[in-house]
Known about the structure:
Layout lengths: L1 H16 L8 H4 L8 H6 L8 E14 L2 E9 L18 E6 L13 E16 L2 E16 L12 E2 L2 E2 L4 E5 L2
Parallel strand pairs: 3-5
Antiparallel strand pairs: 1-2, 1-4, 2-3, 4-5, 5-8, 6-7
Amino acid sequence: xxxxxxxxxxxxxxxxxxxxxxxxxxxxxxxxxxxxxxxxxxxxxxxxxxxxxxxxxxxxxxxxxxxxxxxxxxxxxxxxxxxxxxxxxxxxxxxxxxxxxxxxxxxxxxxxxxxxxxxxxxxxxxxxxxxxxxxxxxxxxxxxxxxxxxxxxxxxxxxxxxxxxxxxxxxxxxxx
Length: 176
């Protein structure tokens, strides 16, 4: 009996160690829609108003203020295991805006960085992207995980890129 208990304890420890990593605290994501229909969100952004959602994107524009940072992003798909990053889009996708009410380090805001965000959807907002004013789906971030890839690399390029070995820097930011 002791041997069987020891085997089960070892297996339990092994399975826990191999579990898929999570990006955000469970307390902040328990009420979240993990993969909302982005087509509906773009067609009628206010349908999701008041909902908590998980979105993924690539940074295309950043506007900072004393209250926080507004990020305009190209929408990317959330993959089965979000901790491994968003799925690259083979075709251009729509855009959305997310406001992070806090500070993100400058490397986290580089154009091209990929991110996943746990956010509360608000009503759509007019945002300025390269001088063009457009109405976009708009969310306020609870937590945001950024893969600091920049615009020239993809998450899959790390740790081995054509330039050599570079560990991918990534960071999670959660508002207090």
